[in-house]
Design a protein that fits this description.
With 175 residues, this protein is of the alpha/beta class. It has two domains: 61 residues, no CATH class; 94 residues, Rhodanese-like domain (Oxidized Rhodanese, domain 1). It has nine helices and five strands, in the order H-H-H-H-E-H-E-H-E-H-E-H-E-H. A five-stranded parallel sheet has the order 1-5-4-2-3. Helix 6 links the parallel strand 2 and strand 3. The longest helix is centred in the middle third of the chain and has 16 residues.
Length: 175
């Protein structure tokens, strides 16, 4: 990654970059501060009068922090294998959840969120989406509410199916 990297590539490589840009610089959250996927980081920074080196450093540091909020499928499996309790929280759509899920997972909804935030569960809480692309925001939300043992599943349910449990059906979303 460098300042000449296109924003689309940057966001794909660092899924939390959009959140980091908005939180510190108010970029990407609304029409007046939006950016195009083909725009380079340098061009975005020039247009918004920001130092591109500083913004890149912030994005890289944020990405390193985001990695601490993720857990690999094989690591979760090893922890399950030694008897550790895991609380699975599925943050995908209801349709995806009803079609295929990791056994024992709970579908994420407002009532479940309130219950978890009130309980402050002691076991490992693993949130997952389809491919791991969108789970970081939910993990950050959980951690911000004191659930420090919450992690996002790297690669989502798709990684779980490929790396741990092939009986969990893989699928592709078509939009």
């Amino acid at each position: 990654m460098n300042t000449q990297t296109k924003m689309g590539e940057l966001i794909a490589a660092m899924p939390g970059a959009r959140r980091a840009l908005f939180a510190r610089y108010h970029l990407g959250g609304c029409q007046s501060c939006a950016f195009d996927e083909d725009e380079t980081l340098a061009a975005l920074c020039e247009r918004t009068e920001l130092d591109s080196g500083e913004v890149l450093a912030h994005l890289l540091a944020s990405h390193e922090h985001d990695l601490t909020m993720l857990i690999e499928a094989t690591d979760v499996f090893q922890r399950m294998d030694i008897g550790e309790e895991i609380r699975w929280v599925d943050v995908r759509t209801r349709e995806e959840y009803e079609a295929v899920m990791i056994p024992g997972a709970e579908f994420f909804h407002q009532g479940l969120q309130e219950k978890i935030f009130a309980e402050k569960p002691g076991e490992l809480v693993v949130l997952y989406d389809h491919t791991g692309k969108y789970v970081l925001d939910q993990v950050a939300w959980f951690r911000g509410h004191g659930i420090t043992n919450a992690f996002g599943l790297t690669g989502g349910i798709d990684a779980w199916s490929r790396e741990v449990d092939p009986t969990v059906m893989r699928y592709r979303l078509e939009i």
